[in-house]
Amino acid sequence: MSARLDDVRRRLRGTSGRGRRLRGLASLVGPYRGRVALMVLSLIVGTAATLAPAPLAAQAIDQGILPHHFGRLALIVVLFGVAALVVWVMTVAQTYLVEWVGQRALADLRLQIFEHLQRLPVSFYESRPTGVLISRMTNDVEALDTLVTDSVVTLFQGGLTLVGTLVILLTFDVDLALVTFIMIPLIAIGSLIFRVASADAYRRTRETIGAITGNLQESLSGARVVRAFGQERRHAREFAELNEHNRGANMTTVYLNAAYFPAIEFVSSLATVAVLLYGGDQVLNGNIKLGILVGFLAALNNFFDPITQLSQLYTTYQSGMAALDKIFELLDEKSDLPEAPDAKTLERIRGELHFERVSFAYRRRDGEATRLALDDIELTVAPGETVALVGATGAGKSTLAKLVARFYDPTLGRVLIDGTDIRDVTFQSLRSQMGIVPQEAFLFSGTIRSNIAFGAPQASDAEIEAAARSVGAHEVIAALEKGYDTEVGERGGQLSAGQRQLVAFARAMAADPRILVLDEATSNVDLHTEARIEHGLRRLLAGRTAIVIAHRLSTIRGATRIVVLEGGRIREQGSHDELLAAGGAYAALYRDWSTAAAA
Amino acid sequence: MRVFARLLGFLGPYKRGVLWSAGLATLAILATVAIPYLSGVAVDAIHSHHRGRLLYLALAILGAGVFRLGVSAGRRLVAGHVSLGVEYDLRNLMFGHLQAQELAFFDRQQTGQLMSRATVDLQSIRFFLGYGLVFILQSALTISLAAVAMFVLEPRLAAIALIPVPFVVYVANRYSRLARPALQEVQQRIAELTADTEENISGVRVVKAFAREAHQRARFERSVGRVFEQSMVEARLQARYNPLIGLLPQVGLAVILLVGGYFVIHHSLSIGQFTAFYTYLLMLLSPMRTLGVSLSLAQRATASGARVFQILDRLPQLTSPPGAPPLPAGNGHVRFEGVTMRYSEGGPAALRDVDLDLEAGRTIALVGATGSGKSTLAALVARLYDPTAGRVLIDGADLREVEVASIRAAVAITGDDPFLFSTSVHDNIAYARPEATRAEVIEAARRAQAHEFIERLPEGYETRIGERGLSVSGGQRQRLAIARAIIADPRILILDDATSSVDASTEREIKRALAEVMAGRTTFIIAHRLSTIALADEILLLEDGRVGAHGDHEELLAGSALYREIVEKGLPDSVFLTRKPLESTGASL
């Protein structure tokens, strides 16, 4: 029971740290103080002017109509018209300004998140699903969008109208106002119950509709499997079930709304009755004027509307705050791989690479280190040498490669390029002289040209073509209808795996790196493309220091040195012939391959 | 208009509900109109010092309030029931219809397009049928009732008071129509921004590797700027129209105050009547606006309806005649008779005039370059498509003349990039036979060499995978898909490049197990590796949609130059092809 109470209390209050979140929100609009001030001004003036008609109408009756004074009536009507114009002008200004400030703040927030994400090291990305990070930038920012645009206006207008109406009612007549205020506890209690119950109900509708969309998406993308196994009917049944859940969840909100909104309406008619009875009595006794009563009745409408509007705001507020929490949590992530404050620019690299007694353990998200992925590696690669890393899954090949690009720092030992510890140089100077070709050739949407020029933005068209030509990609690209101007699509999806691979080689070639780190692709491509890729790879490796995580025998054979890793240690190293002659682990692997190919 | 009438047809099963909700709405409005009227009379009573009448009137208002409470609550319940019911029916109808479509339909349609019809378009129809229609009715009724009441009170004043109504409705309608495309463009640009974000997060290694953070940031800033600019376009529309909608009735009120006051002064209108009149006009403000917005809901629903009907009106192409018999018993004897296949009318032929007679129980390797027709041939055996010309027969029956479900139960197909559902591992393997026991699932997983890695997953066979769960590597997906095919216990098994992402030693294990699975069934293997081809009893070499050669390894070596070339060059060797560990599922370095 007490747990339930706590739950209710928590939902009423929202989670803690509200002050901090609101300060964070305020800091976003800080740079636009001037416009924010104008916005607040227009909201206040506009709302105040909205309130004017009711008392003016009362004045018109009491001062103009009842004493039969047409001149005064006309004057008041003019004021009435002026108020309407003021409302109009102010609403125009406020609509535009709220949207401007809100959207500008969101745009800044998006950029801030983006920059922060860029600063975070690769290890951060490996411990989090892509979808979660994307959702910070999309769903969460959009939840804030609703909060900063719609809600700000409702909050201001609703709040000001409520306060203003209170003041007006009190100035009309204190006793009548007090009679009206008897209704407040009724509404407050009702609204409280309503908002607690509906927060839950609306969350359920969002969850169930999410499930429906997910299911639909899946059965559409998986249409082939559904048909291949003849499971159409089962999917239809499952879908109908989800659909039914959604209807149930929505029905709860219908019940809640059907109880709440008519009840609020009823309270407002109760107030009308009370005011009429008490106020009528006062008028009959000559205590107040009839115009006061009429004006009061008219103003009553303004009193109940904002209360319902404000209680509807609650859900938006909560989801906005939850989103803000998640965004701040992301912005609070510190990079555990910072650039040294006194980092030097790395001179032009000759290409000598030295792992000096390097050990490395990955850290889990809770900070605990896992077992050693690399264990006391001592390895020197001479300029221009190609080293093929060979070994089973988990032997440490990828880890070793990642340390060269400083995607991680070693736990013990140092990685040196031309004798300089790479922790002492700037990321920019290190990585701009290094080429990294990942296993899955990731291309950015844009043209083939822009992708090849990715690492060398100043490259001329001729240079881009030369790079493509030297890795054997030119013929493939030229054969496309639009050649270098072909749009590659999202993640390069418009190109085949082999074409993507060749473009990635050309991209690395154009950047002309001194040190190349390459994770060979394993995907199947047809024979012709395969030959091209082999050739391209040879051209790319020529004359550079290269670390290759090799999967192709031809690559391994072509390497100056083969390093066989096992359990994070170097098991053996040497040339293909040397290792075969030695009859160790490599020789065994090689036998495996030969039998597989000949089977 | 025809679309509109058909949309209304969806309300058919809810006729009574619609009538009830219209009736209750009318009553609620009557009560809402009655309250200010009664207040007006009460003010007159006070003015003429009728204390007794005041009490009665107060009671009457209270009664109207109670009445309105009951009627409004009832209306909300009934309307909610109707609108949710319509939504429920529409969704099931749409889903069922999509499930009935053949695969070729999905090849031509983009998933995103279909999704948007099933979500966005259905929603706009539902809003209109569930709420819009009632709003239009309610607003029109409120406006007419108030207008009648006003005309009864004072016709000249009523005529003046109603002048703003058409303007407000017009402006509100115009705004809704202009705002929608502007808002859609905002959404479109947000979608682009999302794609940009996605790309930068997925491609973070490449960005860092080339030290191109600044460039990507500038690109992202442009995308953000585009969203901002379009939001401002929308804001300007809003700023232009919305306040205007508020202003027009205020001007009307001012005029009524002046003219009505003049009438009261000249005794042609009582003060009470004037108060009531004034209140009615206040009451019209929100219905005027609602009417404009609801009319645009109707326009939108009609446009959406047209798109939804496009799908609902499309008849499924790949059906069997009613009462078609199930596939006759047999061991999986496959025949192709003069089969030609084009994916689109007038498009290139994926298969040309293929004649084949494949003995039951054999394993056939399909070999050929990309686009030579291997996958098409396999898909035709499962009747995922119908051939453009010719016939495909299994155990003597033309596939077009037997029950589709029985074909699908007899043929299992698995591809190189298999799709898994975001359910548990167990449910994915047991996909074709949901009633399979855990022991059967484990057995199938063992045969597909998947059991070991499944055991190591956080929750074993209960681990959720797929889009919203744990992502598994390509090789693991392929093994799960093979297990899924094995458990279906099919007469014909089709492995379409099913082990391309599995490392060499695992592949060897799978094949060893498959040899056992393949016994007694007809198996088609599409493969790029020599070692896989070696598993087959016969080899079918496809060239440009035609059968180039057909026979066993020795026969083809002797008879086909192309086959010799393939064997000599060997295929991508992959002995060192090792998969990344499970923990790092993103693109490794």
Description:
- The complex is a heterodimer of chains A (599) and B (589).
- With 599 residues, chain A is an alpha/beta fold.
- Chain A contains 22 helices and ten strands.
- Chain A has a six-stranded mixed β-sheet, with helices on both faces. Chain A has a four-stranded antiparallel β-sheet with strand order 2-1-4-5.
- In chain A, helix 4 runs antiparallel to helix 12 and helix 8 packs antiparallel against helix 11.
- The radius of gyration of chain A is 36 Å and the shape is elongated.
- In chain B, helix 3 runs antiparallel to helix 5, helix 5 packs antiparallel against helix 6 and helix 5 packs antiparallel against helix 10.
- The two termini of chain B are 58 Å apart.
- In chain B, the strands form two sheets. Chain B has a six-stranded mixed β-sheet, with helices on both faces. A four-stranded antiparallel β-sheet of chain B has the order 2-1-4-5, covered by helices on one side.
- The C terminus of chain B is likely disordered.
- By secondary structure, chain B is of the alpha/beta class.
- Chain B is built from 20 helices and ten strands.
- Chains A and B meet through helix 4, helix 5, helix 6, helix 7 and helix 9 of A and helix 2, helix 3, helix 5, helix 7 and helix 8 of B.
Count the helices of chain B. How many? Answer: 20
Measured by DSSP, the beta-strand proportion of chain A falls in 5-15%
SSE sequence of chain B, one letter per element: HHHHHHHHHHEEEHEEHEHHHHEHEHEEHH
- Summing up helix and strand content along with how strands pair, one would put the structural category of chain A as alpha/beta
**What count of helical segments of chain A does DSSP give?**
22
Report the helical percentage of chain A.
Answer: 55-70%
Note the main sheet of chain A. Answer: 6 strands, mixed
Sketch the major β-sheet of chain B: 6 strands, mixed
Low-confidence stretches of chain B are 571-589
C-alpha-based Rg of chain A, rounded: 36 Å
Spatial ordering of strands, largest sheet of chain B: 6-7-8-3-9-10
